[in-house]
Automatic annotation (TrEMBL):
It comes from the Bacteria. The keyword Translocase does not apply. This is ATP-binding cassette subfamily C protein. Gene3D superfamilies: ABC transporter type 1, transmembrane domain, P-loop containing nucleotide triphosphate hydrolases. It is a multi-pass membrane protein. The keyword Repeat does not apply. One of its GO terms (cellular component) is plasma membrane. Its main location: membrane. It is found in: Cell membrane. InterPro entries: AAA+_ATPase (IPR003593), ABC1_TM_dom (IPR011527), ABC1_TM_sf (IPR036640), ABC_transporter-like_ATP-bd (IPR003439), ABC_transporter-like_CS (IPR017871), P-loop_NTPase (IPR027417), Type_1_exporter (IPR039421). The chain crosses the membrane at residues 42-62, 82-102, 155-173, 179-199, 263-282, 294-315.
Length: 598
C-alpha cells in the first residue's frame, strides 16, 4: 500500500519558550482583556467606588478653603468642619471596600489563569513538552500567574481612576489660578518624559527575572528528579552552583528592575516637591501683589498635594503593567504550544474484543533534524494472543508503542487499530482501548490504591482484588500495615523495581484494555517476580491483544509471534523456533542478549 505522506508536526515549544521580547504589544492588551473580561462588572463597580472615594477627597481642599474664608469672616466653623470630617471618613471607607473587592477579583483572575494553564499543560502534545523544561513550565503556572495579581485589577483600576482624579484635580486647580497651574503642569510634564523612558527597562528586567525563575524551577526539577543519582555521583556542590547561578540571574534582574522603579519613584516625588516650591514662590509673590487670595493659594497647594497619589497611582499602574506584561507573555507562550484535540470524553468502544494492530510502511523521526527511527515499518498483528518485539537497543521498538498511543505522528505510512488509522480515532477513545506499561514503570506519589485506579477511577474492590491476585501483588498488600492505603513515595521510591512494574501492569489491566502494551524493563527481575509477571502477561493474552517489547527469553519463548526489528525496519516475523532457524540476528540475540535471563 502506498505510503501516505504527512507533515511532521513541529515541536513549537522550545522556539517559543525562549526569552520573551520587551514591548507591550496589542497581543498583551488582548490577553490582559481576556483575563479581565469575566470580572469586568466587579472591576468597574469597585473602580467607580474608588473613584468616588478619591473625588470625595477632592472636596476637602474646597472645604478647607471655606473654613479659612469663614475664619476671616468670623462665621461658625461647625458646618465646614463637619463636611471635612464626613468627607475624610467616607473617602476612607469607600476606598477600603473598593480595595478589598479588587484584591478578591485579582485572586480570582489568578485562579482562572492557573486553571486554564493546568488544563492546557495536561493536553499538550508529547513533543511540545519534550522540547520544554518541566520546571520552567511549572514556574509559569506558579510564579508568573502571581504577577497577574496587580496588573489585572489594581493597575487597570488605579491607572484609570488616578488619571480621572488627576484630570479633575487639574480642572479644580485651573479655577484657583491658571498661572500656577501652568507652572505645575510644566514640572509634571517632565515626570511623564522620564517615566516613559524608564518603563521599557522595567519590563525587560522583569522578563529576565521571570525567565531566571523558570530556570531555577528547571534546575530544581532536574535535581529532585534524580535525587539519588545526584547524591551517588557526589554532584551536590555542582548542582548547587547551577541552581545558585539561576537564582543570581533572577537577583540581578530583580535589582535592575528595582533600580529603575526607584528612579521613577524619585522622579515623581521630586517633581511634586519642585512644583510645590515653585507654586509657593510664585504663588506667594502673586498673593503679595494681590493677584490671588491667600485662601486660593492654600487651596491650590492642597490640590497640589492631592496630585501626589494620582501621579503615584499612574506611575505605579504603568510599572505594574510592565511587570504584568512580562508574565502575560510567558503565559501566552504556553497557550501557543501544540495541544491534542480532545473532542471525545474518552468513551470505550462498544466492543471488548481484543484489538488488531497494523503498521503500513511507517516512517518516523523524532525531530526534523534527527535521522529516521522507523524507515519503513510494516507488520500486522491479529486480535488476541501475545506478540513480542525484539531487536537491538535503539531499533525503534518502544517507538512502535508511542506511535500506537499517538504520542507522535508518523511522517509517512499508517498506524491502524482495528483496521482504522489511529489518526482518525478521537485520541481519548483510542487511549481508552489501550493499557500501556512503560519501560521504567512510573509509579506516582500517593497511595497504592491511587496508583492502581489511576487509569480506571471508580473501579470496584472486587476488580482490584482480582488484578492484585493476577499480578501477585496480593501478598505485598497483606504484608503492608496500611495495605492499599500505603503511601508509595515520590515516583514509588518505597517500592522495589519489580513491585513497581507489577503495580504498573495492574494499573494497565484495571483499564480492561483491548490492547496491552508492555515495555519490559531491561533490568533483571528475581525469579519470583519474573515468573509472576510472565504468568500475568500470559493470562492477559487470553482476553486481550498483548504487545511486549521483550528483553527476556522467557517472554519471547511464550509469545505467539515475534517481530524482529533492526535499524528502523521489521526484518522477520515468526515463532521462536522458526526465527532461531531462519534469522541470524534473532539467533544471535537469543544466544546472547536473552540468555542471561534464562
Ligand atoms: N523522545 C525522543 N526524542 C528523540 N529521540 C528519541 C526519543 N525517544 C527515542 N529516541 C531515539 O530513537 C531511537 C529508537 O528508540 P526506541 O526507544 O524506540 O528504541 P528501542 O528499540 O525501544 O530501544 P531499547 O531496547 O534500548 O529500549 C533511539 O536511537 C533513541 O535514541
Amino acid at each position: 500500500m502506498a505510503a501516505v505522506e504527512q507533515e511532521i508536526p513541529q515541536p513549537r515549544g522550545r522556539a517559543r519558550l525562549g526569552l520573551p521580547k520587551g514591548e507591550i504589544t496589542s497581543a498583551t492588551w488582548r490577553a490582559l482583556w481576556g483575563y479581565i473580561r469575566p470580572h469586568r462588572t466587579v472591576i468597574i463597580v469597585s473602580g467607580l467606588l474608588g473613584l468616588v472615594g478619591s473625588l470625595a477627597g477632592l472636596v476637602q481642599p474646597l472645604a478647607a478653603k471655606w473654613l479659612v474664608d469663614d475664619l476671616g469672616t468670623g462665621a461658625s466653623l461647625t458646618g465646614s468642619l463637619l463636611l471635612l470630617s464626613g468627607m475624610v471618613v467616607a473617602g476612607a471607607v469607600i476606598g477600603a471596600i473598593s480595595n478589598y473587592v479588587l484584591e478578591r477579583t485579582a485572586e480570582s483572575v489568578i485562579l482562572s489563569a492557573r486553571r486554564r494553564l493546568v488544563g492546557r499543560l495536561l493536553r499538550l502534545r508529547v513533543p511540545a513538552v519534550e522540547s520544554a523544561e518541566p520546571g520552567d513550565l511549572m514556574s509559569r503556572v506558579t510564579s508568573d500567574t502571581t504577577l497577574l495579581r496587580q496588573v489585572s485589577t489594581q493597575a487597570v483600576v488605579s491607572g484609570i481612576t488616578s488619571a480621572i482624579t488627576l484630570v479633575a484635580t487639574v480642572i479644580m486647580m485651573s479655577f484657583m489660578d491658571v498661572v500656577l497651574l501652568g507652572v505645575t503642569v510644566g514640572v509634571l510634564g517632565l515626570v511623564g518624559v522620564v517615566v516613559s523612558l524608564v518603563m521599557p527597562h522595567i519590563a525587560r528586567a522583569t522578563k529576565e527575572s521571570q525567565a531566571a525563575v523558570g530556570k531555577i524551577g528547571a534546575a530544581l526539577e532536574r535535581m529532585l528528579g534524580a535525587f539519588r543519582t545526584v547524591k551517588a555521583s557526589g554532584a551536590e556542590d555542582r548542582e548547587e552552583e547551577r541552581i545558585e547561578g539561576a537564582a543570581k540571574v533572577a537577583w540581578t534582574a530583580g535589582i535592575r528592575a528595582a533600580k529603575w522603579q526607584s528612579l521613577v519613584g524619585v522622579t515623581a516625588g521630586l517633581a511634586v516637591q519642585i512644583s510645590f516650591l515653585a507654586v509657593l514662590g510664585i504663588g506667594g509673590a502673586r498673593v503679595a501683589s494681590g493677584s490671588m487670595s491667600i485662601a486660593s493659594l492654600i487651596a491650590f497647594l492642597l490640590y497640589l498635594f492631592y496630585l501626589i497619589p494620582s501621579i503615584a497611582g499612574i506611575v505605579r499602574a504603568v510599572s505594574q503593567l510592565q511587570v504584568g506584561a512580562a508574565a502575560i507573555s510567558r503565559i501566552s507562550e504556553v497557550d501557543a504550544m501544540e495541544v491534542e484535540e480532545f473532542a471525545s470524553a474518552g468513551a470505550r468502544t462498544a466492543t471488548d474484543e481484543p484489538g488488531r494492530v497494523a503498521f503500513e510502511q511507517v516512517r518516523f523521526r523524532y525531530r526534523p533534524d534527527l535521522p529516521d527511527v522507523h524507515r519503513s515499518v510494516t507488520f500486522d498483528i491479529p486480535a488476541g494472543g501475545m506478540t513480542a518485539f525484539v531487536g537491538p537497543s535503539g531499533a525503534g521498538k518502544t517507538t512502535v508503542f508511542s506511535l500506537i498511543e499517538r504520542f507522535y505522528e508518523p511522517s509517512a505510512g499508517r498506524v491502524l487499530l482495528d483496521g482504522r488509522p489511529v489518526a482518525d480515532w478521537p485520541v481519548r477513545d483510542l487511549r481508552a482501548a489501550i493499557g500501556y506499561v512503560e519501560q521504567d514503570a512510573p509509579v506516582l506519589s500517593g497511595t497504592l490504591r491511587d496508583n492502581l485506579t489511576f487509569g480506571a477511577p471508580g473501579v470496584g474492590e472486587d476488580a482490584i482484588a482480582e488484578v492484585l491476585r493476577r499480578t501477585r501483588l496480593d501478598g505485598l498488600i497483606e504484608r503492608l500495615p496500611d495495605g492499599l492505603e500505603t503511601v508509595v513515595g515520590h515516583r514509588g521510591s518505597k517500592l522495589s523495581g519489580g513491585e513497581r512494574q507489577r503495580v504498573a501492569v495492574a494499573r494497565a489491566l484495571l483499564r480492561k484494555p483491548r490492547l496491552l502494551l508492555l515495555d519490559e524493563a531491561t533490568s533483571q527481575l528475581d525469579a519470583v517476580n519474573e515468573a509472576a509477571l510472565r504468568d500475568t502477561v500470559a493470562d492477559a493474552a487470553k482476553t486481550t491483544t498483548v504487545l511486549v517489547v521483550a528483553h527476556r527469553l522467557s517472554t519471547v519463548t511464550m509469545a505467539d509471534r515475534i517481530v524482529v526489528m533492526d535499524a528502523g525496519e521489521v526484518r522477520a516475523v515468526g515463532t521462536h523456533a522458526e526465527l532461531v532457524a531462519k534469522d541470524p540476528l534473532y539467533a544471535e540475540l537469543a544466544a546472547t542478549q536473552f540468555l542471561a535471563s534464562v
